[in-house]
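Figure S7 source data.
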Amino acid sequence: MKSAPVGYLILAIIIILLLSLSPPSHRNSNHLRVSRRLGHKHAPFDPLIGKLEILMEENGLKDEKVAGNWDMDESVSRELSESEEYFKEDGMLNITERLLNLFPLLDKFPQDGFINLKELEAWNVDRAVERLNYKTMKEMKLRDKDGNGSLSLIECLHPSLTNLERNDMAPDQVGWWKEQFRNADEDGNGLLNLSELNDFLNPKDSANEEIHELFLREKIRLMDYDKDGKLNFVEFREQAYKIYKTHAEYDYNGYDIPKPEEKFADLDLNFDRLLTVQEMLPMMHQLYPGEITYAIYYAKYLIREADDDKDGKLTIDEILNHEEVFYSKVFESEFDDNNDNDDDDDFFHEEF
Ligand SMILES: *[C@@H]1O[C@H](CO)[C@@H](O)[C@H](O)[C@H]1NC(C)=O
Ligand SMILES: *[C@@H]1O[C@H](CO)[C@@H](O)[C@H](O)[C@H]1NC(C)=O
Ligand SMILES: *[C@@H]1O[C@H](CO)[C@@H](O)[C@H](O)[C@H]1NC(C)=O
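Tokens for the predicted 2-acetamido-2-deoxy-beta-D-glucopyranose complex:
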């Protein structure tokens, strides 16, 4: 524990929680479904809040009483100390000041006094990647006993192997994890380095197509009524297209969404009227959205909420007029979580 402003931190955290309870406004019900998922996933707009969230996660919200004993990563602690200036005397985060200081960091491509969608997307994606990397680094530290920066299969699976024995799960699961490991292990040396471990832990956000294929095969298996390992048009329309449409409604703002026939024809590269795992690769991020996908949706959301003059980009005034939008956990509180969407996520995290 360094000289971090712990008193401020606690207050800031309480304020974040209060903010997260304020009801968001919705302009377009098309977005609700994706929005609901977004609320649980996206990294915060402000990296400082990201740091605070990590702290909260690592220490547990209930530990306010033992604040002095917070276990803080040194880099996190340093950064928070440096952010002390943003906290007002009563410990509240001065959001206005934060936004004024963040604005020039986003307004870069081009630097023109506006934040456009691309700039905001790039920023949010950086925040998501930052968070993923932080978590991966932590896992590496935890598992890499000899500190040589690479993990064997046993080291990667260790907690879940204990789990396996205890829960008497199907031996199949081990096979699945082994395959996931093999796919993540790009150079095939039987060990995962940091970037390979990142893919292993965050398959949906990885760019590794073999990992995607393993996931898509699983998904297709569930949608494939005639069990031929491929999707015909009816199988595609019944499930995969519905998921696609939910996302497309968000992406296209509800207009001009490709029809099932059109989307199917787009994907069916060899015109055999069947979609293979490889042909489904372009839909990976809709079927398995990861933090990066949500970061991009979040950028669209922020523009929609704050763009008062509807020119598709944000001025600092528009942002300051909608401060709370940038600092609330936008969707979380309005909808409950009895939703079918988190199935694969839970699968992944619980196993691990
Ligand atoms: C927050 O920061 C802004 C901009 O620096 C400043 O004008 C304002 O007085 C600050 N608010 C408080 C309550 O300190
Ligand atoms: C790193 O350590 C693991 C065991 O923890 C070992 O299997 C592996 O060979 C080591 N890797 C390198 C590159 O030395
Ligand atoms: C990990 O190994 C892969 C495959 O050999 C390589 O492309 C990548 O740059 C390595 N990453 C790190 C962080 O060393």
